[in-house]
Amino acid sequence: MKRITFLIGAMLAITLVVVMAWSQTAAADDGLVRTTFPSAEDPGPPSYARIEPEPPHVFSDGQWAAIYFYRDPGCVPADFNLLTLFDFEAFGCDLEVEGFDLWEVEPLSAPPKIFIAKGTGAVPVWFVPVDVINQAMADGELTIGELAGLEGLLVGTAAKFNETLHPFPLPPELGGGGHPNPKIIMNAHGRLEDGRQFHLHITWLVNEDVRVVRIQFR
Predict the structure, then answer these.
(1) Whose CA is closest to 117, among 36, 178, 42?
(2) Nearest-CA neighbor of 140 among 61, 96, 99, 83?
(3) Helix, coil or strand: residue 37
(4) Reduced to 3 states, what is the DSSP secondary structure of residue 5?
(5) pLDDT band at 26 (very low <50, low <70, confident <90, very high)
(6) Is residue 149 scored above 80 in pLDDT?
(7) How would residue 19 be classed by pLDDT, with cut points 50, 70 and 90?
(8) Is 59 helix (H, G, I), strand (E, B) or coil?
(9) pLDDT at 29 over 60
(10) CB–CB of 186/179 below 8 Å?
(11) DSSP one-letter string for 158-217
(12) Is residue 180 within 8 Å of 193, Cβ to Cβ?
């Protein structure tokens, strides 16, 4: 079993390297503009955490929901609704990831075509029982205080974190940008506060209607 787990992990790592290499090659071939974050030209995503604006909002394996933070959870405003995802005030909070964006439009004028991020060594990842967080989100709002106080919350820190994101495309009248094939591929590995290790994998291919979430504690 350990060998199988190792092989799966190795395959996922190789896949991510290939995707990143392809993305950089594609940028050169397609004339995309590349910016790195955090930097003066690119402050990173205008978000605190990965919670989607549309239901089901969070990624889950049916038992646990996983929420990973791009920025320090302690910097999230107390009254901010995490279900809205975007907040340009987030630029004032420390990033827990670094990487680059590939733009088909003027940088920061609309979503990038491709977003590639890796952790800086301590990416916050929180796990909540699905039924508990669904109940908390039922009113259309979820604040950081509410999330932190949910029953069954497991707080973790990912020493290894990688994400490839193709944002949803916007129509030209809204500025364009984004990718015609939206997706998220994310892998994280770290430890919970109780000492256990966790593994998290997410594959969401929107156009193909593929949504795979694997969560392991051990």
Answers:
(1) 36
(2) 83
(3) strand
(4) helix
(5) very low
(6) yes
(7) very low
(8) strand
(9) no
(10) no
(11) EEEEEEEEEPPP--GGGT--S-SS-EEEEEEEEEETTS-EEEEEEEEETTTTEEEEEEEE
(12) no
Label residue 6 by pLDDT band (50, 70, 90): very low
What are the structure tokens assigned to 154, written together? 């497991």
- Closest to 202 in 3D by CA, of 69, 98, 96, 68: 68
Instruction: For CA atoms 21, 90, 200, 65, give the dihedral sign.
Output: negative
Domain around 153: 2-217
Residue range 70-124, pLDDT digits in tens? 999 999 999 999 999 999 999 999 999 999 999 999 999 999 999 999 999 999 9
Q: Phi, psi at residue 185, to the nearest 5°?
A: -130, 115
Question: For position 30, what pLDDT does the model report?
Answer: 74
Q: Which is nearest to 88 in space by CA: 56, 135, 47, 53?
A: 47
Strand partners, 157: 124, 191
Phi, psi of 87 (to 5 degrees): -160, 115
Name the least confident of 24-38, 110-124, 125-139, 165-179: 24-38
Q: Calculate what percentage of the chain has a pLDDT beyond 90.
A: 84
* Rg from Cα positions in the chain: 17
Helix and strand numbers (H, E) in the chain are 3, 10
When divided into structural domains, the chain yields a total of 1
> How far is residue 201's CA from residue 211's CA, in Å, rounded to a whole number?
11
Task: State the alpha helices, DSSP H only, in the chain.
Answer: 2-30, 130-137, 144-148
**Would you say 97 and 161 are in contact if contact means Cβ atoms under 8 Å apart?**
yes
